[in-house]
């Protein structure tokens, strides 16, 4: 029968390494999420654009990044660039970019759906007030759409946090990678896997809680529907 020794989780060196790697995980995820919002906005408005080249590029982007696994995209970016173009890649930079590009495809659909859910009368009202199309989008449509994006974007952020564990495959020392290193040193597999599962759980539930608070404050929570 397997003997579990959770005392290894009480050693300060192990605690320090796990918390440090958790911080890296949060930073990498946040970086990827910010990048995904930028890419998502570009792709979503490309989908809605009447400018055909932008529209086709956006559709091609969506088709590729939603149709292939993140792990494959990560490997292609990290290993492919040096082989094909001779570009040196940094593991964590490649990881953040891969997370952002992958998530950007899904974020774009959240953004597009939120924008298109705003009543067309809002655009007409803005134009009747003398606003240009861009001004109406910026001052009237987008602020309302942002509120509607909160819940799905919170889910996407949580999903991205979990997907960040794949960065370990290109030697990025984030939470999952650090746990594997500690397991290799101590042979305490279940103990460290359980520890990082709890850390992921706490972080993702904190993200969910923050998202819920923002929803309620902006009048989109369950009690306001």
Describe, in short, the structure shown.
It is flat, with a radius of gyration of 21 Å.
Describe this structure in words.
- This protein is an all-alpha fold.
- Helix content is 79%, strand content 0%.
- It has helices at residues 12-48, 52-67, 70-85, 91-117, 120-128, 133-163, 175-186, 189-217.
- The protein is flat and about 70 Å long.
- It is found in: Cell membrane.
Computed structural class: mainly alpha
The helix content is over 70%
Largest sheet: none
Order of helices and strands: HHHHHHHH
| Rg estimate, integer Å | 21 Å
* Beta-strand proportion: under 5%
Count of distinct strands: 0
Average of pLDDT: 91
N-to-C CA distance: 53 Å
Work out the helix count: 8
Contiguous low-pLDDT stretches (5 residues minimum) are 221-225
| Shape designation | flat
Protein name: Amino acid ABC transporter permease
Organism: Paenibacillus oleatilyticus
Family: Belongs to the binding-protein-dependent transport system permease family. HisMQ subfamily.
Transmembrane segments: 22-45, 57-80, 92-111, 192-214
Using brief descriptors, characterize the structure shown:
225 residues; disordered C terminus; single chain; mainly alpha; 79% helix
How are the elements arranged and paired?
Blueprint: H1 12-48, H2 52-67, H3 70-85, H4 91-117, H5 120-128, H6 133-163, H7 175-186, H8 189-217
Helix pairs in contact: 1-2, 1-4, 1-6, 1-7, 2-4, 3-4, 4-6, 5-6, 6-8, 7-8
């Amino acid at each position: 029968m397997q003997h579990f020794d959770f005392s290894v989780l009480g050693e300060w060196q192990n605690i320090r390494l796990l918390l440090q790697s958790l911080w890296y995980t949060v930073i990498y995820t946040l970086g990827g999420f910010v990048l995904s919002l930028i890419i998502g906005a570009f792709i979503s408005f490309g989908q809605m654009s009447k400018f055909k080249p932008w529209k086709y590029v956006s559709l091609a982007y969506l088709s590729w990044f939603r149709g292939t696994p993140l792990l494959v995209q990560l490997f292609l970016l990290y290993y492919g660039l040096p082989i094909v173009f001779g570009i040196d890649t940094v593991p964590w930079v490649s990881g953040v970019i891969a997370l952002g590009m992958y998530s950007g495809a899904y974020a774009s659909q959240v953004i597009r759906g939120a924008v298109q859910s705003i009543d067309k009368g809002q655009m007409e009202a803005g134009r009747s007030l003398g606003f240009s199309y861009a001004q109406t989008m910026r001052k009237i449509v987008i602020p309302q759409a942002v509120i509607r994006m909160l819940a799905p974007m919170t889910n996407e952020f949580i999903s991205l946090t979990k997907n960040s564990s794949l960065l370990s495959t290109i030697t990025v020392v984030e939470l999952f990678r650090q746990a594997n290193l500690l397991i290799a040193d101590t042979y305490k597999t279940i103990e460290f896997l359980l520890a990082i599962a709890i850390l992921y759980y706490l972080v993702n539930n904190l993200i969910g809680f923050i998202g819920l608070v923002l929803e309620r404050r902006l009048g989109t929570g369950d009690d306001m529907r």
